[in-house]
From TrEMBL:
InterPro entries referenced in this protein's UniProt entry, alphabetically: AhpD-like, CMD-like
Name of the featured protein: Carboxymuconolactone decarboxylase
Gene3D superfamilies: AhpD-like
Pfam family, one: CMD
Carboxymuconolactone decarboxylase-like domain segment(s): 28-105
Record-level Gene Ontology MF annotations: peroxiredoxin activity
Species the sequence originates in: Methanohalophilus mahii (strain ATCC 35705 / DSM 5219 / SLP)
Amino acid sequence: MGTNADNVKEIKGFLPRSIRYAQDINEDFSEALASFYTAVWEDREDGLSMKEKHLLVFSIACSNNNSESAVKILERLKKFGATRTEVTDCMMIAAWTGGIQNFTDFSRQVLKQMDKLGF
């Protein structure tokens, strides 16, 4: 495992499957993908906090009706101290941008996971 992949593990807390799969294909490809993850998720002065980044990707996942991803992101949001109100604001924004049908589709699974995680 290269240094970029190690950085991703440190930043994200785990090695994303895409990087593991890329390692099986080509080391250079894996390193490039890991560099992309690092660029997106590392802390930068005056940048978004990890909580804010996860709130954004949560809202986007919901807006795209990607319930599976949204449910996984809730665990990260809990870790970074997001409140129930912040999460529900993101759900409402997702309904605004993705449409009410997407909201109907993703909200059942997301609300169930929120209760499970204690939001």
